Known about the structure:
Blueprint: H1 2-30, E1 33-46, E2 49-56, E3 61-62, H2 68-78, H3 85-88, E4 91-100, E5 106-113, E6 122-128, E7 136-137, E8 146-149, H4 154-159, E9 173-179, E10 185-194, E11 197-198, E12 203-204
Parallel strand pairs: 1-5
Antiparallel strand pairs: 1-2, 1-9, 2-8, 3-7, 4-5, 4-6, 9-10, 10-11, 10-12
Amino acid sequence: MRGKLILIAVLVQVLILGWMAGEREWIVRTAPTVWLRTAPVDPRDLFRGDYVTLGYEISTIPAAKFGPALKQLIAEQDDKAVGYRHSYECEIVLYVTLKVDPATGLASVAFADLTPPAAGVFIKGRVRRYNQTATAITRVSYGIDAYYIQQGRGSEFERRNPAGLADGTQAPMEMRVAIGHNGTAVLTGHRWRSLGMTSQNEAEH
């Protein structure tokens, strides 16, 4: 009996992992894509190759973009005493509606609240409540914070100096992101920008 339970537990985990992988692949193949402005902040060398940790512009949401439910939650948290610290540190889910520039595909924050919008492109994020204040929310995570690249190219991303640019020149970096109907985001590539123009160094993930 115990062996059957263990087998069932293993099968359930395999099915969950398979479903997650299938969902991401479906999003990559069918979902609309946007570009998000970012900066590589932490190149690392792993056995499977280089990756960079990314910091996105949309990871900081100013108070002017808060929806009604989000404003109320933050106001309630500000009123809590120190004894409620354990609740204050809980993670919450945000739904961030994006405003997309039709010319460049670059997206920015239009609106953020605790429930998905009725229409428009939105991305689902998570944040710890201690990263919320009356003026802004910071360090929102969208599950796309690590980007794997070819081994040996970590320094290029750290310096923000892609091939073809003069030494010492830094180019803004933008990530191409496919976003599913429920707000789940999947990285699919990157590009560098210089003087407002897209660099030829655009790559698939």
